[in-house]
Write a structure and sequence with these properties.
With 80 residues, the protein is α+β, with helices and mostly antiparallel strands. It has two helices and three strands. It is flat, with a radius of gyration of 14 Å.
């Protein structure tokens, strides 16, 4: 996982057939929320209460500015 300093200096490279959002997901640490199927919901799914750090895999009960396990500064990725 690259840290923010490396991303700013080297940029983010897109792979073949890869979207810009997918490239950002691989380069920047962020919280991952699991979707749970729920037929009673309007959208057909709900989000789990826990979130997972994309850098180290640590599970937290709610989003924080930094991961308590690896201290990565989390970014918000819109459009997921």
């Amino acid at each position: 996982m690259t840290d923010n300093y490396q991303v700013k200096n080297k940029g983010i490279r897109l792979g073949k057939n890869q979207s810009a959002l997918e490239a950002l997901q691989n380069a920047l640490p962020h919280w991952i929320h699991e979707k749970i199927e729920d037929p009673t919901s309007v959208t057909g799914f709900m989000y789990a209460r826990q979130c997972t750090c994309s850098a180290c895999g640590y599970k937290a009960s709610f989003e924080k500015e930094f991961c308590p396990h690896c201290r990565a500064k989390m970014k918000r990725l819109r459009g997921l």
